[in-house]
Amino acid sequence: MPQLGSGGGDDLGATDEMLAFKDEGEQEEKIPENAFTERDLADLKSSLVNESEGSGSPAAAAADPEALRRVQDPQRVYQEKLPDHMDDGMKHQDPGMYKGSAYSGYPFLMLSDPYLPNGSMSPLSNKVPVVQPSHGVHPLTPLIPYSNDHFSHGSHSPHLPADINQKQGVHRPSQTSDIPGFYPLPPGGVGQITPSMGWQSQSVYPLPSCGFRQPYSSALSAGASFSRFTHPLMLGSGMHTTGIPHPAIVPHSGKQDMEHYDRNMKPQPEPKREKEAKKPTIKKPLNAFMLYMKEMRAKVIAECTLKESAAINQILGRRWHALSREEQAKYYELARKERQLHMQLYPGWSARDNYGKKKRRTREKQQDSNSDPASPKKCRARFGLNQQTDWCGPCRRKKKCIRYLQGEGRCASPVSSDGSAIDSPPSPPDALRCLPSAFPSEQLAAPADPAHRDQPDPRPVPAQLPPASGPSRPGSGPSRPGSRRSAAASPAHSRAPAGT
DNA sequence: GCTCCTTTGAAGTAG
DNA sequence: CTACTTCAAAGGAGC
């Protein structure tokens, strides 16, 4: 179904996005997955500490009132269990425990570490980059859009009685991969998942060995180990109201809060804990590209010895465009399932719920300087530069356009850092030039070669989106201005280059 | 310690 | 309906 350019077919994707970079000839390098770098080791090391530290936080337990009540049998349980848990942490470090079971059978216990070669398991670290299980895994193998550290902890966590989940209607020890069984779907809110979706029988979301947040799937995860879901952290920050722990639910400020939990495993004064736990945030489901990034990031890091995410993401963006439709389709499909599952877990959730939580300050700043035309973004727009790839020389990584500030009254045309004019987008950061052998065709402004675009556009079309059987979101009535319109109808993506 | 950068896609907002 | 904005991940850089 070649949809590109057909207008009608390119429903959920912007047509333009496919035009941005078309590094052709760039083939997915079959990179030897052998890079277990020192960095990994370092991460693992630190994770050893973090894991034991980060698994017992009773703080998060407060998120769920019921959980709070239970957990508030104060930290007694926690403290009593701490030694056990620490021991658990050590157990986690037994590679054999995870390694053997490759992904095939993983479902929810075996977590391939995307950042380890061969999808080997990394039970050691709770540091996301090390544990996220997408690397080396077949894209259709449930990617883990969310990290799952706390589940891995929880998998053995003795902090709470095993029956806690039962009380919450989660504990279904006898179930294995029967997802519907594990998914106490929100009452009345959940439509059926179409049979075509494989995630019921297929472990869609493998559990990373260690992680703070958890893929929803873990909630489904079977009997793999339900005790894992009894982890206090889960009860607090990652527990769905139905009792389903979900990686998408994180403390309101997300990462930082998670780090906070990791660093503050000691019981804390009640008020503070409650305060933090009051605002769990359900994160957005990851889109196809995000899933791809999660899987490939480690590769790029290993190949380029890069660490800066911005540069890595640039590379990944190019590689994404270089993917064949077929390959992309895998991720679109995963993303679709991801969204569907998310929708089922959180029927009433809206992306709008998270608006303002991440960039509140930024937006506040923008409001303050709303009329300031010197921002790089505005400068780019004003002069027809691509918001994503162009920059106004000194504007790059600057908050203000230097030329504007210098009194020219406007942002200059693209200039290099030394002020000389440039006609084309500036050279990529050094990082982008890394490992030419690894990215042979990775060049800026690589000529588009639509050859592989002959394949059908993998991007989802409305028909593929959650069927009408899906839950109608409360609060998202038809009159809602932002109600999901047919993305297909809006090929003009926000990425549409301002002037390209 | 917070924010930015950087990517694409999904979804929300505004006109 | 269109255009724009925000957020999702990630981690180094910069303030």
UniProtKB/TrEMBL annotation:
Composition bias type Gly residues, residue spans: 1-11
GO molecular function: DNA-binding transcription factor activity, RNA polymerase II-specific; RNA polymerase II cis-regulatory region sequence-specific DNA binding
Record CDD domains: HMG-box_TCF7-like
SUPFAM superfamilies from the UniProt entry: HMG-box
Ranges of residues in domain HMG box: 282-350
Example of a GO biological process term: canonical Wnt signaling pathway
Keyword hit for Transcription: yes
Entries under Pfam families matching the protein: CTNNB1_binding, HMG_box
Gene Ontology cellular component terms for the protein in this record: beta-catenin-TCF complex; chromatin
Pro residues bias locations: 458-469
Bias kind Polar residues: ranges: 165-178
DNA-binding feature ranges: 282-350
Low complexity composition bias: residue spans: 51-65, 470-500
Places the protein is found: Nucleus
Record keywords: Activator, DNA-binding, Nucleus, Repressor, Transcription, Transcription regulation, Wnt signaling pathway
Residue numbers spanned by region Disordered: 1-73, 151-187, 251-279, 350-380, 410-500
Bias kind Basic and acidic residues: ranges: 19-43, 254-279
Keyword hit for Cell wall biogenesis/degradation: no
PANTHER family (alphabetical): TRANSCRIPTION FACTOR 7 (PTHR10373:SF33), TRANSCRIPTION FACTOR 7 FAMILY MEMBER (PTHR10373)
Family, per entry: Belongs to the TCF/LEF family.
UniProt-recorded name of the protein: Transcription factor 7 isoform X2
Gene of this entry: TCF7
